[in-house]
Amino acid sequence: MVITNGYKQNENERLIDIVNLTQLEAEAKQIIPAGGFGYITSGSEDEFTLQANRKAFQHRQIVPRSLSNIEKPQTDTNVFGIDLKTPIIMAPAAAQGLAHVKGEADTAKGVAKAGALMTESTYSSASIADVAAGGGGAPQFFQLYMSKNWDFNRSILDEAKKAGVKAIILTVDATVGGYREADIVNHFQFPIPMANLVKFSQGDGEGKGISEIYAAAAQKIGPKDVQRIIDYTDLPVIVKGIESPEDALYAIGAGAAGVYVSNHGGRQLNGGPASFDVLESVAKAVNHQVPVLFDSGVRRGSDVFKALALGADLVGIGRPAFFGLALGGADGVFSVFEHLNNELKIVMQLAGTKTVADIKHAKLLNIQY
Amino acid sequence: MVITNGYKQNENERLIDIVNLTQLEAEAKQIIPAGGFGYITSGSEDEFTLQANRKAFQHRQIVPRSLSNIEKPQTDTNVFGIDLKTPIIMAPAAAQGLAHVKGEADTAKGVAKAGALMTESTYSSASIADVAAGGGGAPQFFQLYMSKNWDFNRSILDEAKKAGVKAIILTVDATVGGYREADIVNHFQFPIPMANLVKFSQGDGEGKGISEIYAAAAQKIGPKDVQRIIDYTDLPVIVKGIESPEDALYAIGAGAAGVYVSNHGGRQLNGGPASFDVLESVAKAVNHQVPVLFDSGVRRGSDVFKALALGADLVGIGRPAFFGLALGGADGVFSVFEHLNNELKIVMQLAGTKTVADIKHAKLLNIQY
Amino acid sequence: MVITNGYKQNENERLIDIVNLTQLEAEAKQIIPAGGFGYITSGSEDEFTLQANRKAFQHRQIVPRSLSNIEKPQTDTNVFGIDLKTPIIMAPAAAQGLAHVKGEADTAKGVAKAGALMTESTYSSASIADVAAGGGGAPQFFQLYMSKNWDFNRSILDEAKKAGVKAIILTVDATVGGYREADIVNHFQFPIPMANLVKFSQGDGEGKGISEIYAAAAQKIGPKDVQRIIDYTDLPVIVKGIESPEDALYAIGAGAAGVYVSNHGGRQLNGGPASFDVLESVAKAVNHQVPVLFDSGVRRGSDVFKALALGADLVGIGRPAFFGLALGGADGVFSVFEHLNNELKIVMQLAGTKTVADIKHAKLLNIQY
Amino acid sequence: MVITNGYKQNENERLIDIVNLTQLEAEAKQIIPAGGFGYITSGSEDEFTLQANRKAFQHRQIVPRSLSNIEKPQTDTNVFGIDLKTPIIMAPAAAQGLAHVKGEADTAKGVAKAGALMTESTYSSASIADVAAGGGGAPQFFQLYMSKNWDFNRSILDEAKKAGVKAIILTVDATVGGYREADIVNHFQFPIPMANLVKFSQGDGEGKGISEIYAAAAQKIGPKDVQRIIDYTDLPVIVKGIESPEDALYAIGAGAAGVYVSNHGGRQLNGGPASFDVLESVAKAVNHQVPVLFDSGVRRGSDVFKALALGADLVGIGRPAFFGLALGGADGVFSVFEHLNNELKIVMQLAGTKTVADIKHAKLLNIQY
Q1: Which of D223, D251, D271 sits opposite A62 (nearest CB)?
Q2: Cα D161 to Cα A21: distance, rounded to the nearest angstrom
Q3: Residue A101's pLDDT is what?
Q4: Is the pair D, C in contact (3+ CB pairs within 8 Å)?
Q5: Residues in CB range of B4: below 8 A, 6 or more apart
Q6: Catalytic residue flag (residue C264)
Q7: Does the annotation list D262 as a binding residue?
Q8: Average confidence score pLDDT of chain B
Q9: Has residue B212 got a pLDDT over 80?
Q10: Which of A58, A197, B266, D358 has a CA between 20 and 30 Å from the CA of residue B249?
């Protein structure tokens, strides 16, 4: 363990045995300090939406299909012109140094090993350059928390572009921080610097609370901001935090190259629906004009299957990658992706779907349990 | 602490730290005597309706809206020609001396500091005059439990008018007391006199049980009573305890200046619906003819948002104010209002609604969890 | 206490304090021997239907009505030409000697004091004559478990008629005993003789298991049996155990003077619906041709109200009367009826219904909680 | 007890007292080694589908029917031209040596005594010949896990045919093993050889994990395989693991003589619906062209009734037979069938259905609890 500003950072580097991603959380809790663990796992207010995210997958059921004459299901896919070995991606998630001393660099390396897509947060512990250098060559997207300071925005987008990221994910559901009680109860302040913030006047985040970090972020985001980032970067811009058909069309109208359905893992607006429960209506509105990305609550291969069947093209996981990172560094992250992808393959075979494209034609039932 | 008739009244005067209003209840339980705490928090019969009041907010979900290009949401509103800094109001609630030695005078002072609306109960511990004098200048409504004795009614309405209240809230859902088992189990009798009752033959409530208090109240209330009070006071009369479109229209027909949707916090008719679950149908029937007030079960900023979105113009809290009053007097009440309003502002920002008026156009989903 | 065949029979004779009928069960459990208590309270199989009987009342909600201009609600009613002070009746229930040494004689006395209707079971501990003699003059119905032996049927109907019963309730949902596991686990056999069986060859039930008792009952019951009993007794015959519109019409077609909706308190067919959940459809089919009686799961004044609102004319309680009988004999039974009727009156006032007839026009909501 | 490869095999041979099949599981847990018990009772992933299988029976309710004028209900039935004393059959279930040293031979003997239908798994502990020899003459079906090796398939079908089985059940929902976590946590490997595998190169299963066993099975199964087995055996072929109308029609199109609705007891695709919840739609699609078999979650006579009412012709049990086998060998299995059939008879009587054919016309309600 490394002690950084009084916070114990894990240094494990190993493949890990996984029974399931839910149990992994309990294991990770043993080794991630309480403040960091609270920050990673908690949601906002009374966590209704956080819990709804998990329950929602039970709202739809997969029809087992036999006699489908398939075998060896393949999880390969191509989205945004990028070949991936799995539709499961790393969701944007800040401050991975809370789980492991190498932070996002190790995450990216594990993701690369799994043939998946990495996304790096503006608020990452490791810098864009370090992640690119140490990340094992995973295709990367860069997630932007738009600052009030456009010098900052331009600078960080320049860095991201220089590092070769293939798209920008603009998060629009966090113009103010969700009311996360665990952080308040824990008096949580970021012990680990946020590398990308270091050279800006707003500081590097170290020793700051979540609300201070968000205070520097733009509270006011509209379609013109989407257009401005497209114009500046000339990269595909994916708008993240879309939970309604209206916003999806609004984003596409502003030039978005992708729509990312997410409620921020239940960390922002509490009292809203599960992300899974709005996915289908958003995907129908998008109607294949642009790819649909999805996250919030995914823990099972069957969850991934269901999200794909309702219209997602890529399915993100966040917290489980933190757990894998804490327990095994890059190899731990790889183990998480491999495990989840293996669960997915079993579901694909039993549902009679040989490819990711087949999943998109799979029927789900909606029986109430 | 002051001991009044063997009952320990709190004297705290301080701002309080609040994580959320649910946890505040547990803190308040430590310092409010058991009989008073039971009276304040319990509902009738097996508390089905009390519990339904909380569950009901989960029946509807707020759609997070991004790209709305708003910031700094404002909670100011104007109802009945009164400027308020928040749509959250103090609901009529009797006997606040159970929580604090200064009772409603301190509540009114905290409410004033929050820029909210105070309503004072007929059965208040502090007199109308004392609340007006010590209440910090909050706009006030006076809530009337209509007596069988019209001398009493006229006298108390005179006092209220003299004190400058801006409207009368006539409670019509309590023509008999709900069957509240906690009070029976606790053999609860009011230890603190009810100031407004002192000069009447019916006594001041001290040492009486709830059923004795209600016995003096009119059991028979009809539209003519509404008209009589309007005629006598020449003030706007809001009818409180409306739970159906039928009664809303009936009240408006009788001249009501406002409709107050409430099931008395689950304290009266048990086996009825959650107040939140009937709000939309009542508001639709009212159709903006008069303002709609709402209470019963509100604990979260998201609850306030949802009630406004379904048609409420003002949203009341009752028990949480008792908890703040016990823990911090006027400043404690202020802390409660400020906390809840801050939660509301976060929800407003994340839902893309800059004003209270915007909230009224917000769409809610109804997914079952 | 009296020890009868090793079974301790209670002898209490006193008014009892009641908070609610649910808590009364816990009190009664302290003084009714385990075997008897298991027989009284248990249902069949895994008690799905028993539990559904309670849950079902939450499926419908009473709309509080204000401004209704009523007071002093009255529970008087007249059914089958009989004046009653309450629509709550004693449901047919066997073997009340398990709760009290005086059994049904005391029950009838308490029921009489409450101005309610007594029904006596074929399998009562006290004889028809003793109940009539000691029962305080309550109007009585006699419940018939039809025997395979028509000599027995004729004899017991003769006795009932001689005792002045005003109607026969023919139970048709128990042609075989439900599979009640508590009785099997307890190796329960009736310790108290069944007085009406004494003079018949089939024995008096003492020392017999439930299945042996039922073995003497007719397994095969059809409309001709209804007609035969009508013809023999020239009394109104009410068919009990109707749970479908089809059977209700079938019974009326066979000459039934009343339809009794009940699933035998969840003691017979498990896996069936709550009795309350089928009441409305049965009542609509009956369409006021004959009175509708109802029981199964009633514990609250609001339950009684809801059943009346959905079409019942009389609402029965069974187990709660056993608890009152055990704890207080005739006066205990009276306390139970009085308490429940008082709860009903509060609900009536708050729902704006002055009479039992008004309740029948009350609207219920069906919101899911 | 016999110790086989370190695994304790039970040897009990006795009739057993049964309160219900749920409690029987707890008893069996005391005497079946943990690894075997985990294998028998667990489901896949987080067991959502396993649990849904039980909950689903509560989705439909049996209407008690009185005045039906029936008695002595009969459970006799004839399916595939075979006379059976009960519609309850032994579902295909592998490795019964885990419960008892005599394995399927004893199961078949108990099933024969109950007048029911035996089905034997490819992966049975006892060989086809031994089961036929020791099985007491129960009519038997043989369940085939189709191997990648057609020499194996032909050989085992030859043996089955030689042993006189009356139909082949082709399992198609297990082209890969479900993700069963209990087996992983227990490091479970089959301690008991699988007799039918002994002479093939793939080995006899002993000391192998479940995934190794499934690896030898065909992952790719289509309608041509159904046809091939029909052609080879000239026996009726029933396709097992059908959960949708589409697959049912597909199977019948391929020549299937029966459709077996099952989700493999929740052991294969998790995240799918309860088997009971899809039964009705499958049966309607089949529309009496071929018999419909059903299993997954059956524990109660009322469950059997409900499945028959929704379209099943035969209803299978699996795990409860293991419990009976462990506790009492052939007589234990007989006790299980007899108990469940007795529960069914009580339900039949109370639902007014004299025959299995009558059940098929019984109406079920669908009220939500």
Answers
A1: D271
A2: 46
A3: 97
A4: yes
A5: B97, B101, B191, B192
A6: yes
A7: yes
A8: 95
A9: no
A10: B266
Split at pLDDT 50, 70, 90, the class of B58 is: very high
Residue A205, pLDDT score? 67
Using the predicted structure, report yes or no on whether residue D248 has a pLDDT greater than 80.
yes
Whether residues A246 and B65 touch (CB distance < 8 A) is answered with yes
Give the neighbours of chain D: at least 3 Cβ pairs within 8 Å.
A, C
Please compute, for residue A58, the number of CA atoms within 13 A of its CA located in the half-sphere on the CB side: 17
Q: Interior CA angle at B256 toward B253 and B259, to 5°?
A: 105
Within 13 Å of residue D220, how many CA atoms lie on the same side as its CB? 9
Q: Given CB atoms, is C26 within the 8 Å cutoff of chain B?
A: no
Structure-token pair, residue C300: 């609250």
Q: Are strands B88-90 and B314-317 parallel, antiparallel or unpaired?
A: parallel
Q: How far is it, in rounded angstroms, from Cα D229 to Cα C265?
A: 53
Q: What is the pLDDT of residue A198?
A: 78
Instruction: Give how far Cα C84 sits from Cα of C79, C262, C302, C352, Å.
Output: 8, 21, 19, 21
Give the closest of A63, A70, A301 to D272, CB-based.
Answer: A63
Q: Which of C134-138, D4-8, D307-311 has the lowest mean pLDDT?
A: C134-138
Within 8 A of A186 by CB-CB distance, chain B residues are: none
In a mutational test of the A interface, the residue from B61, B310, B361 whose CB has the highest number of chain A CBs within 10 Å is B61
Task: Report the residue of chain D nearest C263, measured CA to CA.
Answer: D64
Residue with the bigger pLDDT between D249 and A198: it is D249
Cβ-contact D41, D320 below 8 angstroms = no
B306 touches chain A (CB under 8 A): yes
Residue C202: pLDDT above 60? no
Chain C and chain D share a number of CB contacts under 8 A equal to 110
Q: Rounded to an integer, what distance in angstroms lies between the CA atom of residue A143 and that of residue A247?
A: 19
Cα distance between residue A351 and residue B35, in whole Å: 60
Instruction: Give the CA distances from residue A256 to residues A236, B227, B303, C80, in Å, rounded to whole numbers and listed in that order.
Output: 7, 59, 33, 75
Among A200-204, A254-258, C23-27, the range scoring the smallest mean pLDDT is: A200-204
Smallest CA–CA distance from A276 into chain B, residue: B367
Kindly list the residues from chain D whose CB atom is less than 8 angstroms away from the CB atom of residue C246: 65
Interface check for B22 against chain A (CB to CB < 8 A): the answer is yes
Residue-wise pLDDT tens digits, D91-103: 999 999 999 999 9
Question: Quick one: tokens of A181?
Answer: 């009680």
Rounded to whole angstroms, how far apart are CA atoms D5 and D339? 34
- Count Cβ atoms below 10 Å from residue D280 Cβ, excluding itself: 18
Asked whether at least 3 C-beta pairs link D and B within 8 Å, the reply is: no
Res A294 pLDDT > 80: yes
- Residue ranges of domains in chain B, CATH in brackets: 2-365 (3.20.20.70)
- In this predicted structure, the answer to whether residue C206 has a pLDDT above a threshold of 80 is no
Alpha-carbon gap, residue C98 to C4, rounded angstroms = 10
Instruction: Read off the pTM.
Output: 0.96
Alpha carbon distance B48, C306 (integer Å): 14
**Hey, which residues 178-197 in chain A have their CB within 8 Å of chain B?**
178-179, 181, 184-185
pLDDT of residue A199: 66
Q: Chain A contacts of D45, Cβ < 8 Å?
A: 20, 300-302, 343
Contacts with B269 from chain C: Cβ below 8 Å: 62, 64, 302, 347, 350-351
Which element (helix H / strand E) includes B359? Answer: helix B356-359
Q: Which residues of C217-237 are buried (b: 16+ CB within 10 A; e: fewer)?
A: bbbebbbebbebbbebbebbb
CB atoms within 10 A of CB D78: 10
Q: Is the pLDDT of residue B202 over 80?
A: no
With CB atoms and an 8 Å threshold, state whether D269 touches A19: no
Residues of D in contact with A364 (CB under 8 A): none
